Amino acid sequence: SNHTVCNVWGMFWNISNQMSIFLILTFNLCRTKALLYPFARSSIIAVKGGICCYLLLMVVQVCFPYFFRSSYVLNADFLICHWDYEGQFGRGTGMFWVLFGLFNILERVLPFTAVIVSCCISYVLLVGQKRAELEDLDVQGV
Length: 142
Prior knowledge:
The chain starts with a helix and ends with a helix. The protein has helices spanning 2-36, 44-62, 64-67, 85-91, 94-140; strands spanning 72-75, 80-83. The chain has 5 helices and 2 strands, in the order αααββαα. The longest helix has 47 residues, at 94-140. A two-stranded antiparallel ribbon has the order 1-2. The chain has 142 residues and is mostly helical.
C-alpha cells in the first residue's frame, strides 16, 4: 500500500542523508589520523564498528515515530515522506521531544563539529608542511 511505501521511503531517505554525513566524517577522521601519525596502522575494525554503531543509531532514530504510535506521511507538495509532526504535537509527550532533541544533537551537531576540527587540523598541518618546504628551499638558495 502507499502507506507502507511512504514509511519505507521515509526511513531510507533519513538514513541515507545522515549516513552520507557520517561517512564524510569517517573519511576526514582517517585522513587527519594519517596526517598526524603517518606510520600508524589504521584499524579497519574500528572504522567498521563506528559505521555499524552509527547505522544502528540511525535505525533507532528513523523508527522513533513507531515508538509513539505515529508514522511517516506523504507531503504531496514536495513529494517526500516525513514524520507526522502534527500528530506528534497532539499526542507527543515531553519525553518524546527530549529524546528527539538528543538524537538530533547526536546525529547532526557532533559529526559537524568533528569534521570542522578535523579540517582545521589538516589545514594547520598542511600549511606547516608548506612553510617547511619553502624554508628548505630558502636555505638551499634556490
